[in-house]
């Protein structure tokens, strides 16, 4: 800066002071943003009922007119899935759950939508759902503390939870849970 005229030096110094002032004001906000972003990426929602526990009584009318009742041991491997028509991860996992149902696993999907029966069935067809579906009422959602969809539970025939998952279940995770549920009988 020695060879620069005094006006140019003053302009550069003023610009540097402005930049330093801006960085001092913006840096805490930038760090806060990065911290919140990092924290939100590393925090995963957890289902209320954990592996090894049992679900409380679950009762719902299914779209085919039958009634689903869980009040203890289902007697066979059961996948209970809470889903919604607006849920992209639910759309992703529906074919995996349908494939499990096609292989003899009892799968029941309970929608948290307030849609009527025909809208519910239309959404199920769009998702490729081939297993029985019904609607979860507000009381059931509160009792099971379902706060986010999808929420999936895999139960052994004796009724203990083998998989407790909020968010889309992956193929390997579902396969492992189904094998573990069959072993526990």
Fold topology:
Layout: H1 6-42, E1 58-61, E2 67-70, E3 78-83, H2 88-102, E4 106-111, H3 117-127, E5 133-135, H4 138-144, E6 151-155, E7 161-166, H5 171-184
Parallel strand pairs: 3-4, 4-5
Antiparallel strand pairs: 1-2, 3-6, 6-7
- In round numbers, the mean pLDDT is 88
Biggest sheet: strands side by side, in what order? 5-4-3-6-7
Order of helices and strands: HEEEHEHEHEEH
Low-confidence stretches: none
* Extended strand count: 7
How widely separated are the two ends? 81 Å
Sum this structure up briefly.
The protein contains five helices and seven strands; from the N terminus they run αβββαβαβαββα.
Can you offer a commentary on this structure?
- The protein folds into 2 domains: 43 residues; 127 residues, Glutaredoxin, CATH 3.40.30.
- It is an alpha/beta fold and 185 residues long.
- Helix content is 45%, strand content 18%.
- The relative contact order is 0.17.
- A 5-stranded mixed β-sheet has the order 5-4-3-6-7.
- It is elongated, with a radius of gyration of 26 Å.
- Strand 4, helix 3 and strand 5 form a beta-alpha-beta unit.
Descriptive keywords:
two-stranded antiparallel sheet, 45% helix, 185 residues, five-stranded mixed sheet, Glutaredoxin, 2 domains
